[in-house]
Amino acid sequence: MNRRKLTLVLFFLLIPLIVTGGALLFREKYYAWISLCVAVLTCLPIWYDFERRETGSAELMVLSVMTSLSVAGRFLFAWLPGFKPVTAITVITAMWLGAEPGFIVGSLSALLSNFYFGQGPWTPFQMFSWGLIGGVAGLIAKPLRRHKVLLCLYGVFAGVFFSLIMDLWSTFWMGDGFSIPRYLALAAAALPTTIEYAVSNVIFLLALAGPIGDKLERIRTRYGLFREQPM
User: Fold this and answer.
1) Which residue stretches of the chain are H helix?
2) What is the C-alpha separation between 228 and 231, in angstroms, rounded?
3) Deepest in the core among 136, 157, 171, 188, taking most CB within 10 A?
4) What gap in Å lies between CA 228 and CA 226, rounded to an integer?
5) Tens digits of per-residue pLDDT, 38-55?
6) What is the mean predicted confidence (pLDDT) over 120-128?
7) Which residue has the higher pLDDT, 161 or 35?
8) Distance set, CA 110 to CA 13, 56, 128, 130, 163 (Å)
9) Range with the lowest mean pLDDT among 8-22, 62-76, 184-198?
10) How far is CA 155 from CA 49, 173, 187, 214, in A?
11) How far is CA 203 from CA 14, 77, 87, 105, in A?
């Protein structure tokens, strides 16, 4: 089964079944459990396609290094809750290696670093958010590499997007169903952290995109890695 077929099965069969079954089986916080399952399932097509593709040991090594840098950066700045290089390293990976590697690094960074910060139902939402930020960055890689202003704007967008997705999870988990007033209240309360996310993304992107990007470009060109280039 290719990724397209798997995606169709997930979105038109499994996810509707989970939504229906969750509403019938879970009496408490069923919206939260449904959203958790959906977040996990949306990551599966890319992971499945990556697993089936012939990925060389050199490519796996590069992805491991980028993921390790991202996780180590989150550890290093643990004392500043909203100031992390995870998004920047994920975006940089996607800019030079492609959308799929960006998604892999982003989602793995959340999963692995949470063995220290704490695993929970929020982990799939972090995996989905950082993975999607990397995936989109890979799709618009060329303009991001050429224009620093656009790169900074994407860093701001990524910070806001990540925060809003996590506020969505919090809204589901705090009560039965989705409440717009509750969601807006949580988003407003998280505004200082959201601004910190956005600002830190811009700072790390400006500081790291050049030196890390140059090294990734040399590695990719010299060893012929990641031949499926960003759009």
Assistant:
1) 3-9, 15-25, 30-52, 57-76, 86-97, 99-117, 123-139, 141-146, 148-174, 180-189, 191-223
2) 9
3) 171
4) 5
5) 666 666 666 666 666 665
6) 80
7) 161
8) 27, 24, 9, 8, 14
9) 8-22
10) 27, 27, 18, 19
11) 40, 14, 11, 20
The pair of three-digit structure tokens given for residue 91, joined into one six-digit string = 């975006």
C-alpha separations of 49 from 40, 80, 184, 228 in Å = 15, 35, 36, 13
Single-letter amino acid, residue 127: M
Instruction: Scan for tokens 């799709």, then name that residue.
Output: 139
- What is the residue type of 34? I
Q: CA 41, 92, 133, 130: dihedral to nearest 10 degrees?
A: 60
